[in-house]
Amino acid sequence: MHHKASSEIFRRAKELRLRLTPAESVLWERIRANRLNNLHFRRQHPVYKYILDFYCHQYQFGIELDGEIHDQSDQKLRDLAREEDLRGLGIHILRFKNHFVMQETEEVLRLILMEVESIKKQCPPIP
User: Fold this and answer.
1) C-alpha to C-alpha distance for 104 and 113, rounded to whole angstroms
2) Whose CA is closest to 55, among 47, 65, 70, 45?
3) Fewer CB under 10 Å: which end of the chain, C or N?
4) From the Swiss-Prot or TrEMBL record, what is one GO molecular function term (predicted)?
5) 97 CB contacts (<8 Å, ≥6 apart)?
6) Positive or negative, the Cα torsion across 1, 41, 118, 51?
């Protein structure tokens, strides 16, 4: 589940859980405690050398929320490499801009459910 994440990554994830961004807080309130179709998400979840904003182990599905820094070309390249690494671990990733989460929360939830349905068709859930 953690794909050999280091103790440093676990420490950083714990710190990040204490200071969610506003967009992370909005989404977390809607998906925490199995509130979204009984899907269990973790927040700031360590995987390998990364920390996923939200992660559903049952479907190996991560959600990343992106602030303005992710619009910079060098960050876009790092994001692509990160997604490639995570896909190599069998993890599906869905990205949203922070402002989209804040302005279109219901649409974000609908897109998350659509992605889960797509993942279900590809492979069975992990118990």
Assistant:
1) 15
2) 45
3) C
4) endonuclease activity
5) 65, 66, 70
6) negative
pLDDT at 78: 85
pTM reported for the whole predicted model? 0.88
Joined tokens for residue 70: 């992710």
Identity of the amino acid at 64: E
pLDDT tens-digit map of 71-98: 667 767 888 889 999 999 999 999 999 9
The SS3 call for residue 99 is helix
Query: How are beta strands 61-66 and 92-97 bridged, if at all?
Result: parallel
* CATH fourth-level superfamily of 7-119: VSR Endonuclease (3.40.960.10)
Contact by Cβ (8 Å): 28, 43: yes
